[in-house]
Design goal:
By secondary structure, the chain is an alpha/beta fold. It has 18 helices and 21 strands. The protein is elongated, with a radius of gyration of 27 Å. The structure holds cytidine-5'-triphosphate. Cytidine-5'-triphosphate binds next to helix 16, strand 18 and helix 17.
């Protein structure tokens, strides 16, 4: 068919290799098309699809580019750098949403190379992914052609970021255990690029201790998780396990791609996390429900930006992130001592749920066990614990930036503003301990917040605790820029 200019189309598709991959032809076939300035009839469908996916308006009758469909988003690629994401599509019902992620990434001028697991091919076809990315979608580790054209190591190394959408329980388990038995898992083991995963699965599978352990392992190794979200699932159940919306996945990826690596290099950050526990005797103690998820995520986010991080944490199930100095403590007084010993620091983030009171000495028997005596109930008296945040805020070696958290049961904004002033910190991240639906933020994977800096405030919507940690780290980075 005529009326089109083959060279223009090849340029718009991203080069000769892109057309070769799209049509499954060799270099000589493309030379022929160029010589005749004509594409075969069978190319019309995939070429039109691929051009549209890259943001062009196309007249299919003449196979002609008539304009730009998607205006490129402002801001992200102001530097002119073009980045490449290796998109691994896992085998789940949410696989089709990976196509939208691919399209939206290209709207942002990001090159996308698609890789699909065998089970992903049960949900979407490699052809649809190839049509959207304008490149061959890779599926097979042992395909000789692929190995000759693009070895899996090269595929893994050429990406600026590896993104898994959806990350299934099975794929997460294989990667957490270092199993490389297909192209996707081999790439995930071989890549040196940052890895982000957007998990999606049935809520019971998500909550299973095996999945949660693998999830924690992956985070500890530096994988950034996007979601999962809460809501109704395709399987008819409700709970945590829904894939995060494609636009939010793309926002997280763009932030990660254009994050300034090492922006906090040379800075020392002190982070408190988890609960403190206060002994009644050597068996019993007073505790609270803090999981340490938020504090640990903040420590990981600051470390990922190059800060030297000291994480002082009460007893939690979370593993400390890689690359932080972890100091395990139990009581508020231990936590304060560990924090003061860690000074000087440039940044202090007090995310721990510190017990406000401990049992008054004399009442408690730290070395023994209170005996039950018939008719006599022990009367525990409490005394106040030191306030670590307030102490650091007024310390002679005060960190330049001190950030507090506030857990409020009522009057969030007014109480948070009063707390900011009372504690003497620079910023406060305040959250309601219970959500509108009555569920608790303690031990949950997501959080919303009111962010206060001086007399300004912002509402941060419900998001994964890891995303909230990134948002706070963005602020810290900007503060020190
Ligand atoms: N905090 C602290 N030391 C304490 C108590 C709290 O460092 N002994 C810190 C927390 O880490 C958090 C902030 O102070 O950053 C607010 O904690 P929160 O429990 O919300 O406030 P409280 O001071 O305990 O006041 P209240 O419980 O009355 O709201």
């Amino acid at each position: 068919m005529k009326n089109h200019d083959v060279q223009t189309i090849i340029t718009a598709l991203g080069g000769r290799a892109a057309l070769q991959a799209l049509l499954g032809v060799g270099a000589s076939a493309v030379s022929n098309y160029l010589a005749r300035n004509e594409l075969p009839q069978r190319a019309v469908g995939p070429v039109c699809e691929a051009l549209r996916a890259r943001g062009y308006r196309v007249d299919p009758a003449r196979l002609e580019i008539t304009g730009q469909q998607f205006p490129a988003a402002e801001g992200y690629h102001a530097s002119g750098d073009s980045k490449r994401v290796l998109l691994i599509v896992g085998g789940g019902i949410a696989a089709y949403k990976a196509l939208e992620v691919a399209r939206r990434l290209q709207d942002q001028n990001i090159g996308v190379t698609g890789v699909m697991t065998r089970s992903a091919c049960e949900f979407i076809t490699p052809l649809s992914l190839a049509a959207l990315t304008g490149e061959k979608a890779y599926t097979d580790l042992f395909s000789l052609t692929d190995e000759a054209e693009m070895g899996h190591i090269r595929l893994a190394r050429e990406a600026d970021l590896v993104l898994v959408v959806p990350a299934t329980a099975n794929l997460m388990a294989r990667v957490a255990n270092g199993i490389a038995d297909d192209l996707a898992s081999t790439i995930l083991l071989a890549t040196t690029a940052p890895v982000m995963m957007a998990p999606a699965m049935n809520p019971v599978m998500w909550g299973h201790v095996a999945t949660q352990t693998n999830h924690a392992t992956l985070i500890r190794r530096g994988v950034e998780m996007i979601g999962p979200d809460d809501g109704n699932m395709a399987c008819g159940e409700e709970g945590t396990g829904r894939l995060t919306q494609p636009e939010d996945i793309v926002t997280a990826v763009m932030a990660r791609l254009f994050r300034q690596e090492g922006a906090l290099a040379g800075r020392h950050a002190l982070v408190t996390s988890g609960p403190t526990i206060e002994p009644i005797d050597s068996v019993r103690y007073i505790a609270n429900r803090s999981s340490g998820k938020q504090g640990h995520a903040i420590a990981a986010a600051l470390a990922a930006r190059g800060a030297k991080v000291t994480l002082v944490s009460g007893p939690v199930d979370q593993q400390p992130p890689a690359d932080v100095t972890h100091i395990a403590v139990e009581t508020a007084r231990d936590m304060l001592a560990a924090c003061e010993a860690a000074l000087p620091a440039d940044i202090a983030v007090c995310a721990a749920a510190v017990a406000d009171w401990r049992v008054k000495p004399g009442n408690s028997q730290p070395a023994g066990k209170l005996k039950k005596q018939e008719g006599a109930v022990p009367q525990l008296q409490l005394v106040e614990n030191p306030d670590i945040l307030a102490t650091l805020s007024r310390h002679s070696h005060r960190p330049r930036l001190v950030v507090g958290f506030a857990a409020e049961a009522e009057n969030l904004q007014a109480n948070a503003a009063a707390k900011l002033a009372r504690k003497g910190c620079d910023w406060l991240v305040a959250n309601a301990v219970t959500r509108a639906d009555g569920s608790s933020v303690f031990n949950s994977d997501s959080n919303s917040a009111l962010f206060l800096a001086g007399n300004k405030h912002e509402h941060w919507p419900e998001m994964p605790k890891s995303a909230l940690a990134e948002r706070l780290a963005d602020r810290v980075e900007a503060h020190f820029a």
